[in-house]
Amino acid sequence: MPIPAADLLAAARADVDRTVDLRRRLHRTPEIGLHLPRTQATVLEELAGLPVEVATGTTTTSVVGVLRGARPGPTYLLRADLDALPVHEDTGLPFASEVPGAMHACGHDLHTAMLLGAARLLAERRDEIAGQVLLMLQPGEEGFHGARYMLEEGLLDAVPEAPVVGAFALHVFANQPSGVVSVRPGPMMAAADHWEVTVRGRGGHASMPHAAADPVPVAAEIVLALQSMVTRRAPVFDPAVVTVANLVAGSTDNVIPDSAYLQGTIRTLSPERRADVVASVRRVATHVAAAHDMQIDFVHRQGYPVTANDPAVADRVLAIAGELVGPERSVVAAEPLMGAEDFSYVLQRVPGAMAFLGACPPGADPASAAGNHSNLVVFDEGALPAGAALYAAMALDALVA
Ligand SMILES: [Zn+2]
């Protein structure tokens, strides 16, 4: 059906004060992790005035809302994340964080405000809807697997008689031009894996390395060997990033330590590459250490899988965003982002897409503006109506015959 794009955007603009007000209230009181009682209470208050059936999580402070259309039909999922980061805000904004050491530095406050704005737009259009809109408001996106907990609690069975046929999420970025929507088919964001290596040596006097087993040069060799491994093993069109982000050994200048510790991240865009690089990090570290008659302990923790967009849904996002914000502001993302996202778990189960929405503040240059996760990041609230309208339009596109 043709989306009433102009109407939706006009309605979202008319409602922008409410969206901005909610965004700022959330911004003042950020919470981190899986348990966000204050944020959850705010979301529940906002939903209370709407024709939405609400359920809350049992293992986390998630919120699930079901908005039923006038006629039966399938269910379409819209997702926003609720959590902040352990960052101390230094923006000086009048609505800056009032919680020391916590900040909505990734824009999840904008996501939540836009999703609730979309819920209001959709509530006004219930008569046109055949099916249900499933509102997914998740804590713990920043590495806590909040989406996975919601799936385990039966998120996709929230409307037992009507399966979830599609899913959509938005992410704002402060260093992309404001109001520009970007999306791509296939990988949108990377898989992220955590690893740790402890090189087991034998301590001793720094003047007599032959009488000890010095793990420091072995750790250094492992760092370099990992980079060689990545460039020689990963095809350039199925890339991988291995970063050693933390390297710790020793305590003073005259002692050889008994161990050295390294930890880092692996980012990949395909399951094959992911499995190969994880195995290769372990193998390279094991055998470099073995060459020096030492052993390692290896730890691997799986992070989020690849966020893979369904190509047909990505096409619909481009077409619908083009109608909303103009074709010149609806673009194919040139490349995936090597960050990771737990909406990936939803996209493993349901065809859907995550799109990016630029929110570079007025007067700033996207190339040099403080980016997401920075203590100085500022997002353009002028992008909020387009985001709210896009959420609503994706649901209407799927549910209006
Ligand atoms: Zn984020």
TrEMBL record:
An annotated Gene Ontology molecular function: metal ion binding
Q: What is this protein called?
A: Hippurate hydrolase
Carries keyword Ion transport? no
Gene3D superfamilies to which the protein is assigned, alphabetical: 3.30.70.360, Zn peptidases (3.40.630.10)
A GO BP annotation? diaminopimelate biosynthetic process
Q: In the record, what lineage is assigned to the organism producing the protein?
A: Bacteria, Bacillati, Actinomycetota, Actinomycetes, Geodermatophilales
Q: Per its Swiss-Prot or TrEMBL entry, what cofactor is needed?
A: Mn(2+)
Q: Which UniProt keywords apply?
A: Hydrolase, Manganese, Metal-binding
Question: Which residues take part in binding Mn(2+)?
Answer: 106, 108, 142, 171, 373
Pfam families linked: M20_dimer, Peptidase_M20
Q: Which domain of life is it from?
A: Bacteria
Question: InterPro entries under this entry?
Answer: Amidohydrolase (IPR017439), Bact_exopeptidase_dim_dom (IPR036264), Peptidase_M20 (IPR002933), Peptidase_M20_dimer (IPR011650)
Give residue ranges for domain Peptidase M20 dimerisation: 195-290
Q: How is the cofactor bound?
A: The Mn(2+) ion enhances activity.
Q: Give the species this sequence originates from.
A: Geodermatophilus siccatus
